[in-house]
Amino acid sequence: MVPLSWYLALSAVLFTIGAAGVIIKRNAIAMFMCIELMLNATNITFVAFSSFFRDVTGQLFVFIVVTVAAAEAAVGLGIIIAIFRNRLSLDVDDASVLRD
């Protein structure tokens, strides 16, 4: 059996990679992928604690997080397509020009 600390360490590493990617990347698609990586890291934590405490509450939270992530991806990709059609670029610095 794998100890809980290994799952938490994996989750921390994945969340850190995702957070670094959101900060470093300038491409909107790459930023969305990093956000999804961060959400999956939290899902691993929820499932690990759910298994450790033998309770299904963590798995219910994972279901909610996956649902929110799907909605976020649908709306986010729609916004990215609209920005690309107007600016012909996926750079997030170009998206800030839309305020003018």
Keywords:
100 residues, 4 helices, 82% helix, elongated, mainly alpha
Could you please describe the fold and organization of this structure?
The protein has 100 residues and is mainly α. The protein has four helices and no strands. It has helices at residues 4-24, 28-53, 57-87, 92-95. It is elongated and about 50 Å long. The chain starts with a helix and ends in a 5-residue tail after the last helix.
For the largest beta-sheet, the strand count, sense and barrel status come to: none
Fraction in helix: over 70%
Task: Pick out the low-confidence regions.
Answer: none
**Overall 3D geometry?**
elongated
Strand-residue fraction? under 5%
Task: Note the run of SSEs as H and E.
Answer: HHHH
- How far apart are the first and last residues' alpha carbons, in Å? 57 Å
| Count of individual beta strands | 0
Question: Whole-number radius of gyration?
Answer: 17 Å
* Global structural class: mainly alpha
Mean pLDDT: 90
Number of helices: 4
Walk me through the topology.
Blueprint: H1 4-24, H2 28-53, H3 57-87, H4 92-95
Helix pairs in contact: 1-2, 2-3
Short description:
The mean pLDDT is 90. By secondary structure, the chain is mainly alpha-helical. It contains four helices and no strands.
